[in-house]
Amino acid sequence: MSVPSTSEVPSGLSTTLLLSLAAVGAALVAIFGEKQGFTAITVACALAGLLPWALVAGGVRLRPAVFALLGLPPGVVAVAVAHNSGGMFPLMMVLVWLAHSPRASISTLVTAAAMLAAITSLCIQTGPDESGIIFFTAGMGIAWMTGAMLRRQETLTAQVQAMRDVQVAETAATERARIAREVHDVVAHSLTVVLLNLTGARRALATQPERADEALARAEAVGRDSLDSIRQVMGVLRAPGDGATLPAPALAGIAGLVEGARGAGLDLEASLDLPGLSGVPVDATVELVAYRVVQEALANVLQHAPGATASLDVAAEGADLVIRIENAPVPVPPASDPRARRGLGTLGMAERTRAVGGTFESGPTPSSGWRVQARLPLIGAADGATLAGPTTR
Question: Which tens digits make up the pLDDT trace of 301-320?
Fold first, then answer.
């Protein structure tokens, strides 16, 4: 993860303005700080030393060496030539800026050395003043630390912003994956049932028109339900309050899935002991996951095991809701094994199950059929359950 430089950090402009205003104050101290220091050369040096600050405040990007070249000489002249110790304050602001700038170590060292030379020269010319040297040396250290702290603060701000951007991107990706799973579950199941009913209607149209009409009616009903479900999924993309959304599917809707699968030609034996309907509390999210698992598993049987018999068991076992879907071997195996194709259906069922703290298994049975089993906590738990069974279809 790359971190932008301090010049690219949004807070950099405010820092520049703040330091520029402080530089103006330091220039005023150099001009008016001492009565004997108020001379033409001091005023000229103080104003000339504001040139780099005016440029950076106006948005001009100056390299540290250029900034030092523009800001350092006026202050040194004010101290060493004009004998005005107040010129050290503009130099301290230059040191703050250089210590705050990235990749300015050489310019910072040169500036610090020039400041020490200037104050030493002043003390030699005006007489020994150990306290003055100590005072200004300490001020240089404080200026250096101030610049380093500002640079550190901006670096941390950039890192926090970068991590926030990554978090937003990951959240968006997770939401897109969730919506994709919903759309896949709805469309895959509904289209499978619709196509099977249409196929049956086409075959029965010439000899049994009444059965063809029933198959077409079932296809129409499944299509309408699918459209309503897709509208519900798309509702999460709308702004809050932008239209009403349908209630999420629940355990009570599994009976409809069973009837739809049977209507599509699946020889299905179902045993439904739905806990939510018998007074046992079930988490709403668990109900939705259970519905989607049954929906996708039945769609897989219809698609990958045409003509095979199947069984569905949904019941509460202790504190869990257990779903088992198993189909017998296909009477006439297809030319190519559809289980060799790795699709999104089984992966989506596993992810949904794990999201509520459940376990998921999928794989062939000893009799060459196929079994899907999901164990869901009646009250949804935290993410972190295991996924068993590497085979998918």
Answer: 888 888 889 999 998 888 89
